[in-house]
Amino acid sequence: MMDDMGAIFREEVRDLLESLERGLLDLKARPGDMGLINQVFRDLHTVKGSGAMFGFTELAAFIHEFETVFDRIRSGDLAAGPDILRLALAAKDEIPGLVEGLPDPEGQRAAILQGLRAIMGGEAVAEGQGAGADEAPVAVGEGPSRLWFRLTGAALAMGARPEIVLDELRGLGATQVVADLSDLPPLDRLDVEACAVGWAMEMPAGVTTAQLEEVFLFVDAEWRLEPAVQAAAPVAVSAVAAATGPATGAAAPAAPAGAAAPAARADQNGTTLRVPAERLDALMDSVGELVIVEARLTELARQSRDPALMATAEQITRLAGGLRDATMTMRMVPMRSLVGRFRRLVMDLSDKLGKPVNFSVIGEETELDKTVIEKLADPLVHILRNSIDHGMETPEERAATEKPREGLIELSAVHAGAEVLIRLSDDGRGIDAAKVRAKAVAKGLIAADAVLSDAQTFALIFEPGFSTSEQVTELSGRGVGMDVVRRTIDSLRGSIEIDSKPGRGTTVTLRLPLTLAIIEGLLIEVAGERYTLPMASVQEIVELPPEKAVAEGAAEFLDIRGRFVPFLRLRRLFDCAGEPGAAQNVVIVQSGEVRVGIVVDRIVGTNQTVIKQMSKLHADVRAVSGATILGDGSVALILDVAHLVGMGRASGEAGAQMREMAA
Amino acid sequence: MSMSKLKSEQTLTVVTLTLGRQTLAIPTRFLREILDPLPVTRVPGAGSQVPGVVNVRGSVVPLADLGQALAIPDVGQDDRRRFLVLDVEVAGEAATVAVAADAVHEVTTIDTQTIEPVPAAAIAWPPEFLSGLYRGTEGFVLLPDLGQIFSNLANRPQAVPL
User: Fold this and answer.
1) pTM reported for the whole predicted model
2) Which of A612, A616, A620 sits opposite B60 (nearest CB)?
3) Which sequence spans correspond to the domains of chain A?
4) pLDDT tens for residues A299-321?
5) Where is the CheW-like domain (chain B) (predicted)?
6) A636, B46: Cβ pair inside 8 Å?
7) Residue A651, Ramachandran bin (φ over 0: left; ψ between -120 and 50: alpha; else beta)
8) CA atoms within 13 A of residue B125's CA, in its CB half-sphere
9) What is the homologous superfamily of the domain A333-513 according to CATH?
């Protein structure tokens, strides 16, 4: 049980730390932003409060000082200068260690606290006085009784929330809840850590002291229960309708500790559920199996021609489809979860290298399958690192080329059909194609007389052992990394493109599939063999004009509404025996901006395609991105559209290469 | 699998099978199951050593032709043909691979002392793909080095631009 709670707390801390880091980094850009300062303060406060609640006292004590600084910033006593932010980020980095109970051999934490104290002018940090609960058990009479309570001492600081206590009391039947503001100090003497408000309420008959003791078990509070004689009205009365922290009304624009946190908590309690990732994976596996069996059932039902069976199969299809969609949606995670660490990385690197960089993110809400997101972090870090280390010029160099001193790096993520495009572009010096080429020749990656387009040249960067930087820096340039990037993207069935203009900057585009599990597929047949094309990449299907039925030697094009689209004959590409039938179809597929036609014998139909990875023994077959099991139990290969389109484009550009490839 | 590793145990339990006219033995610890031939889906451009994939109980498994790797001439198939599903290591990762056999004979335990290295003069078989051989009742039985064969297949350079 406690382990469960600990795990929940760790999860919560992780989220809060992400938010905290984002807040601190944003503060660096907008130091005076009250909203940000409040957000940071709230995050700190919540970590501290939850920490104390779960027994992480060392953590709570550590954050307390950290938080005090932000309280001062909030009240305008201090400015959120770069020193404070640096210390704050360093302090934030210590929190996971504190949560895990790791020792601090180098005295890092003490040094951070020392630094924070120094900034605050060595003032002693005011602590809320912890007072023990002061209970006076009262015998409960037969009739309704009146309960009065107040949170005491450091209860608020330790994470107690009056609204939760009130909710619990309401659960016991509390009515006519009124706030007791008699002890409220004037605004200038208000201690945000202390709860100055008390509450009084009617409790129904039968509520026992033991029940109330349970409510107040984990809260420092004083309370008393007495028989209701008459409505002993407290001084000032304000209904506690909205569950806000007690100080909210008083300390106006600066939303205090409790205010935002309860919303988050309520969200967690009410509408959001944390589920371990393995359970989602297990669910996805089961759904995958179900979809395959469902296809088999549909096939059998169709053969049986039994209307009842067919109707049932149809229902199963519908349900399985719904289940599949719901499962996939559950696995979608916004890019935002990645972006936090990138911001930090950019800041650290730009500080270290003395290259000021403005990092902007577009499409943080774009969602991807969690597996994709997890695997994407490292490649993006590598690219980002390279971009700042190699791509960005120093401010002096930039000034000399009439660029703004501050570099610009933009990360964007957008959906495009069944793909997500992630672009990382900078306005740095760009990649020197000639240099890349020279290096590749020197390393023996290409022949000295190889003819390469710019895109092909840039792609050499992803070859293992390639590194263009003349000096190896601490950060990048060891020649590892970029080939890992491509391997990872390949393993995600994605592709990577580099575009670069000398002096203007570099854009790296990652194309990734939305999901790795199940896709809608178009089943086609060529010479008796069946293949699946991802439906999302299919643009349209046209008949192959009879005059094109026989292959000509040169590059072949179709006229699709006035646009020339190159096409590939799968029969030829896959070396199929026999002659095609009279009517062939062309499936027009698109990848990126390019459309290519694929000539097939027959369109079988659409199906749910549960993607199975090809084994390593088939890793060299680029035209196939995976396999799926059809309703009759046979295996159909999933064609890699990006690769086919690449081939089609090559054939469109270079003409007669097709014959060689098919040979 | 090296000779010394083979000989580290007293005995070795193998399943024997025929490919063409050659008898092979595969250690049973690799063997998951033996199946009647399954419908094979050809993988275009994959080459003759791993020509296709099969559906083994809901998993898509590559089908390898050991005869090709070991240069054993094909003499045609009949109804004794079987697929052996093996759990092996391919380039450092656990993988399931199916191999075709023209006939499967028996599971037998052999004394590892009887295993001999492949004679250097035996040019009929690629020695790097064999762990060793032993004398069976009807001539030599080859012990293919599955790890070598499959890892070599996984790392082969791209043969065709497919």
Assistant:
1) 0.55
2) A612
3) 2-119, 134-269, 287-331, 333-513, 518-662
4) 889 899 999 999 999 999 999 88
5) 11-155
6) no
7) alpha
8) 26
9) Histidine kinase-like ATPase, C-terminal domain (3.30.565.10)
